[in-house]
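To the wet lab folks,

You asked to see what we're planning to order before we commit. Fair enough. Below is the target structure as tokens, and below that is the sequence we designed to fit it. If anything looks off to you, flag it before the synthesis order goes out.
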């Protein structure tokens, strides 16, 4: 192969011209515009104004103040359940975080969104591929040549080693809008993962406290059964002495047996709750055990954040907002369909009839040129797709506003639960103390022979009902506390230094 010094070969001229053209194209892309509307977060409807403060707010929690919201749903929420100071709850939360399959599916969905973002970004770059091929072929003897039979034939080989290039020039921002949409969807998937994680943590804590409440309730019923057994024994002894009638013995036995029948119902509730907890922890329900334990009496006070912080911290709100941005970008993609698409295509490589000469310099071949695809008549398809994109965006706007409204409802529900359950628990504590005092009086009157056993049985049933109600309210207060933390989007920055119980244990 000869080299000609000082003489510009045609191939060199073409390469330089192509380089200049490529530089010009890149500059054109940089200066290109993006059609379609830019994203702006929609304002609240006049008919749906955001509240100035939570209904159950107080001057001590700054709930009446507002500030500019700064999205922070992606920030870690920490191990908020540790405020309950329960090692068993800590163990279950760690197990659920490692083994829960719904959470694993959410992680996989985030990976899918990340991969889709990578696919969208790949459209920014030229697509280069190679399709080496070998063809052996025979030409027809009667192939036409100037209207007559060729009257000869050829059998030959063709070897091709090409490199094919295809690159869409993003003049109207179609690719940029697709990347914008994919990125917003990716961030929304990250927020969905945080939503799934927060929901899982809250469900584990709620089921755990429900199990502990049932343990405490079973203990109360079991202790009462022992008391009723002693009462039956006492009544039987008094019957032998002729002090009371068979009616007293029958009433004492009826009370004992009916109370014993309540234990299986409590055990069934606990078994169902335990099985649900097993699934949350990613474990088979068969063989999953949780030793009985006391119900904690430490109910920490949760500092209610600023109203705007609710919009920052809740991952479901952040996810809904990002889906609006993704849908808005799709409107731009639909608008770009009305504009021509410009592609740069090229092929370069080697072609020969023999392997021995395939990579010789004379065997080189190339082609390069732009192509334009312009819509002329689509039967209304582009207009319909644009209308579809706009309608989808309006759907995400409505979903976002509904999510915000539901968030405020969640907080209001749980704030009301905190206040009213505390009041109810205080009243129930007094009722339990009164029922216990009534039972003491009834026992003394029965032993003195003043009343029949019916009065004792009534007082014992009242004491049992009031104590069980007290225990159930304690469990409800703990689960309501978990629900409030979930409604606020997880933990908080300023943890209470010394969590204090809102109510003592049984009086």
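Sequence we intend to order:
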């Amino acid at each position: 192969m000869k080299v000609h010094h000082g003489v510009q070969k045609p191939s060199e001229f073409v390469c330089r011209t192509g380089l200049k053209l490529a530089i010009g194209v890149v500059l054109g892309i940089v200066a290109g515009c993006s059609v379609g509307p830019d994203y702006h977060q929609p304002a609240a409807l006049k008919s749906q104004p955001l509240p100035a403060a939570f209904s159950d707010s107080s001057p001590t929690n700054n709930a009446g103040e507002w500030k500019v919201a700064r999205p922070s749903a992606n920030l870690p929420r920490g191990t908020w359940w540790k405020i309950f100071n329960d090692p068993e709850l800590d163990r279950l939360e760690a197990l659920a975080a490692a083994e829960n399959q719904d959470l694993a599916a959410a992680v996989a969905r985030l990976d899918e969104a990340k991969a889709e973002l990578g696919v969208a970004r790949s459209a920014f770059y030229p697509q280069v591929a190679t399709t080496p091929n070998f063809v052996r072929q025979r030409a027809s003897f009667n192939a036409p040549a100037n209207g007559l039979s060729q009257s000869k034939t050829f059998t030959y080989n063709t070897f091709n080693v090409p490199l094919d290039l295809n690159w869409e020039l993003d003049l109207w921002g179609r690719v940029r809008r697709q990347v914008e949409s994919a990125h917003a969807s990716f961030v929304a998937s990250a927020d969905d993962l945080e939503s799934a994680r927060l929901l899982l943590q809250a469900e584990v804590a709620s089921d755990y406290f429900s199990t502990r409440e049932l343990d405490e309730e079973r203990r109360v019923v079991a202790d009462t059964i022992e008391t009723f057994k002693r009462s039956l024994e006492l009544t039987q002894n008094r019957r032998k002495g002729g002090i009371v009638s068979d009616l007293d013995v029958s009433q004492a036995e009826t009370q004992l047996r009916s109370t014993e029948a309540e234990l299986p119902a409590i055990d069934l509730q606990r078994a169902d709750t335990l099985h649900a907890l097993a699934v949350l922890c990613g474990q088979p329900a068969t063989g999953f055990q949780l030793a009985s334990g006391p119900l904690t009496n430490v109910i920490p006070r949760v500092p209610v954040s600023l109203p705007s912080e609710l919009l920052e911290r809740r991952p479901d709100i952040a996810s809904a907002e990002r889906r609006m941005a993704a849908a808005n970008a799709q409107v731009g993609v639909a608008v770009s369909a009305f504009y021509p698409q410009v592609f740069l295509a090229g092929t370069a490589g080697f072609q020969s009839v023999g392997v021995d000469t395939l990579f010789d310099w004379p065997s080189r071949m190339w082609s390069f040129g732009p192509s334009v695809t312009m819509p002329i008549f689509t039967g209304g398809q582009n207009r319909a797709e644009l209308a579809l994109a706009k309608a989808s965006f309006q759907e995400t706007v409505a979903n976002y506003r509904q999510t915000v409204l539901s968030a405020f409802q969640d907080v209001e529900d749980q704030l009301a639960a905190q206040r009213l359950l505390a009041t109810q628990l205080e009243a129930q504590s007094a009722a339990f103390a009164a029922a216990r005092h009534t039972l003491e009086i009834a026992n003394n009157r029965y032993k003195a022979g003043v009343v029949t056993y019916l009065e004792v049985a009534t007082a014992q049933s009242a004491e049992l009902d009031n104590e069980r109600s007290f225990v159930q309210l304690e469990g409800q207060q703990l689960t309501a506390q978990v629900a409030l933390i979930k409604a606020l989007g997880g933990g908080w920055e300023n943890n209470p230094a010394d969590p204090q119980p809102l109510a003592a244990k049984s009086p």
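Structural context that might help your review: Confidence is low (pLDDT under 50) at residues 1-15, 17-31, 58-64, 493-507. DSSP finds ten helices and seven strands in the chain.

Thanks,
Computational group
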